[in-house]
Amino acid sequence: MAEERLNAHRIVTLNCGMGRDSIAMLCLLKEGALMHNGRAIRPEEIDAVVHSHTGNEWDHTYHLFRRVRRLCQDIGVLFVQLHKGDDRYHKRPELMADFQSRETVASLAKGDCTENHKILPIRRWICEQARIRFGIRDGRTWTREKRPSHLTLIGFAADEMARLGEGKSSRSPRYMSEAYPLVEMGITKAGEAEVLARHDFDDVRKSGCYCCPYQPPGWYWALRETQPRTFTEVVEYERVAMARNPRMNVTGRKVGGRGGQLLTIPEVVDRWRADNPGATVPDVLAKKYSRCLSEARAAMKADNEKLTQLRRKET
User: I need a labelling partner for 168 at 20 to 30 A (CA). Which of 120, 249, 256, 312 fits?
Assistant: First the structure.
């Protein structure tokens, strides 16, 4: 007797941010090796691979769209991109414009970027599909009728366990549930590299917005070198916020310890480059940066200490 499909009575999506984690999941799905609750997931059990566009992502992310779409076509899975401007799903403008309209910036403390620009648009899409497939108009009705929660597959590597506590939304509604196949399978970042190489995706870089506060200083330098117009836009985005509140810089970098001088993005980049004169763009972008809040804060603290030491040398 055939096992009931995972999406027989609910919507199942694979969230694809175009980074190494989510594309590794796609490659494993193609191999018939992506696991959930001890069994392999079949491509027909995925309603869609969904990417929610923030509007401010790196060029190397945009360059992947065609390849990922082709991969999904090869295995017979729908690839959906939720674009800015479609107010059925996106209720906010592009991420950077959204913050700039309020004269503020994305920060480590708030962490609402992913919630508002990725998670919520995908949930709206899921609810629409539930209405189309099952005739249930909204999540409250779905919960009230005691239907199985919709399932979202999320790409966290097994050596990123800290992200499960900090990354999983505490406000996740009862009609939604999340699963982490790479964690279940014990696939680490190194293991992802092997999977990606088997499918000619070993060149995939970390995804993320180019104004992300989690980025290390080197990534802003790489942005200046590869996308100078974009870099200028990010600098202006920060300038508007700091004109309202001088304590509101994008990177959180500063010199002088607690209460010290906050640095603008150009200042951070110049100081980083002075400390790393031989670094190349491929070198920088090949390195991952943490998306775990506690690790990101620790990295920022270490960077601030280095910047303070550099300033002392300059003086």
Answer: 249
